[in-house]
Design brief:
Elements lengths: L1 H10 L9 H13 L8 E2 L1 H8 L3 H13 L3 E4 L3 E4 L4 H20 L9 H15 L3 H17 L4 H18 L5 H20 L3 H26 L9
Helix pairs in contact: 1-3, 2-4, 2-8, 5-8, 5-10, 6-7, 6-9, 7-8, 7-9, 9-10
């Protein structure tokens, strides 16, 4: 927890003088998406509030917002925890991803496209893999898909998918061997990128659809092997 709180203290400058629960929730959502708070982590009001320099009431409102987004759960007399996903949650996340991401690619205008963000995410994934940082590869993978969604130029779609991708990170935490899950998608991200560079939208969409189907099968397989009696993955 000390490492996570140090990172939050670094984020304090992002709040500025107009600190709001929405900005606090944005910070915590990003931290969850980047893997700083794994599923099942209890979030301390005192520690997190102190790290960010916000009031208890502001933090509670941020927790409420993230609970509404299904990233956190409030347990009576125990506190607030990062949510542990069920198989049904994972399947719904991927269903949403397929609907949105494939539609974004299908709806692109004529090339060229603004692919700098996608290219940077591919390079970040390769660099993390060379360092053996498979958590970093997973983060780069999520950033790739965020940049893909951003091609739609829709703030509403970006906002919708921010929470979906944060939930996706919760699913990735259940995987015992992240290298086996993430490594193949470095090359597959690059394939989607090259198809878009060539202006081949149909090819990119086809690659993406198969990609998401394969990833879902792999993550669900892990969940089935580690599922608990309540339908959630065991820690």
């Amino acid at each position: 927890m000390a490492e996570q709180l140090t990172g939050l203290a670094d984020d304090r400058a992002l709040l500025g003088r107009t600190s709001t629960a929405e900005r606090v929730s944005d910070i915590l959502r990003s931290r969850i998406a980047d893997g700083y708070f794994p599923p099942g982590t209890r979030l301390s009001e005192d520690s997190i509030g102190g790290a960010l320099g916000v009031s208890r009431n502001t933090l509670r409102e941020a927790f409420r917002l993230l609970t509404h987004e299904r990233l956190l759960v409030h347990e009576l007399n125990r506190g607030v925890f990062v949510r542990v996903l069920s198989i049904e949650d994972v399947e719904d996340i991927y269903r949403t991803r397929a609907l949105v991401e494939c539609a974004v690619v299908r709806g692109l205008e004529e090339p060229p496209y603004a692919l700098e963000g996608l290219a940077a995410a591919v390079e970040d994934g390769r660099a993390s893999a060379l360092e053996g940082d498979w958590k970093g590869v997973g983060t780069a993978n999520i950033h790739f898909h965020q940049e893909l969604v951003a091609l739609a130029g829709s703030e509403r779609t970006d906002e919708l998918m921010r929470s979906v991708f944060a939930e996706l990170r919760l699913a990735f935490h259940v995987v015992d061997e992240p290298r086996g899950l993430h490594e193949p998608y470095i090359a597959r991200n690059a394939e989607v990128l090259e198809a878009l560079r060539a202006g081949e939208r149909e090819t990119a969409e086809r690659l993406l659809a198969v990609y998401l189907e394969n990833s879902l099968d792999e993550v669900v397989d892990v969940y089935r092997r580690r599922v608990g009696g309540d339908g959630g993955a065991t820690a």
